Amino acid sequence: MKQTVYSLLQQKKKVGKKSFAVLIDHDKITSSQLHKLIELAVSSSVDYFFVGGSLVINNQLEKVVAQIKTNCSIPVILFPGNPSQITNQADALLYLSLISGRNPELLIGQHVISAPLVKQSGLEIMPTGYMVIDGGAPTTVSYISNAAPIPTDKNDIAICTALAGELLGMKLIFMDAGSGAKISISESMIEAVASNITVPLIIGGGITEPEKAFLNCKAGADVIVVGNAIEKDSSLITEIAAAVHSTTIKIS
Question: DSSP code of 196?
Answer without folding.
Answer: T
